[in-house]
Amino acid sequence: MLCSLSTKLGPEELQAINTLEQELATPLLAFSCHDLKPAEMSSAQLSQIQALENRLGISLVAVKV
Prior knowledge:
Oligomer: single chain
Radius of gyration: 17 Å
Number of strands: 2
């Protein structure tokens, strides 16, 4: 299972989240979870992924397609 920030929220969903944020007086982050399996990677491939992560300042996840 892999979760990421939700980017496809509709206007009603965004409004509901905004309303609750105001009621709670705190920001909320919306995540969506996906049933993905990790890909098997060699040590060399992992090193390439880690190098790009470090260069870009992000996290990457290799998944089976």
